[in-house]
Design goal:
By secondary structure, this protein is mainly beta. Helix content is about 5%, strand content about 50%. Strands 2, 4, 5, 6, 9, 10 and 11 form a 7-stranded mixed sheet that branches. Strands 1-3-8-7 form a 4-stranded antiparallel sheet, with no helix packed on it. It starts with a strand and ends with a strand.
Length: about 120
């Protein structure tokens, strides 16, 4: 399974970005993680094959995850961005259901290369 991300960049606080992750086959659970400088990688949002989603409290109301199955692409829409959202964002895929995979990065077998998001104040 290959995951290819795009859409990162630099934006001012309050702005928006949409990240994309192209995949070549479906898996039960897909997710977005992020890793800020000097911090551990954290789960941002997950999506089941049936469309159910979950987002971290830190981005709730600002981020949304969705998938276009026809394009085999996963998205992360990020609105009202804050400087603390600055990080490298990763797309990941698990062979387990999200109920088991959750945001435990050890349960995600496939990872994208990462895309940098920088939010300036």
């Amino acid at each position: 399974l290959q995951l290819v991300e795009s859409g990162g960049g630099s934006v001012q606080a309050g702005g928006s970005l949409r990240l994309s992750c192209a995949y070549d086959r479906k898996t039960p659970c897909m997710a977005w993680f992020r890793q800020a400088p000097g911090k551990e990688r954290e789960g941002v949002s997950i999506i089941e094959t049936d469309g159910r989603t979950s987002v971290a409290d830190s981005v709730k109301g600002r981020y949304s995850i969705f998938r276009d199955s026809a394009k085999s692409t996963l998205y992360l829409q990020m609105n009202s961005l804050k400087p603390e959202d600055t990080a490298v964002y990763y797309c990941a895929a698990a062979v387990f259901q999200c109920a088991y995979a959750g945001v435990d990065e050890k349960r995600y077998l496939y990872w994208g290369q990462g895309t940098q998001v920088t939010v300036s104040s």
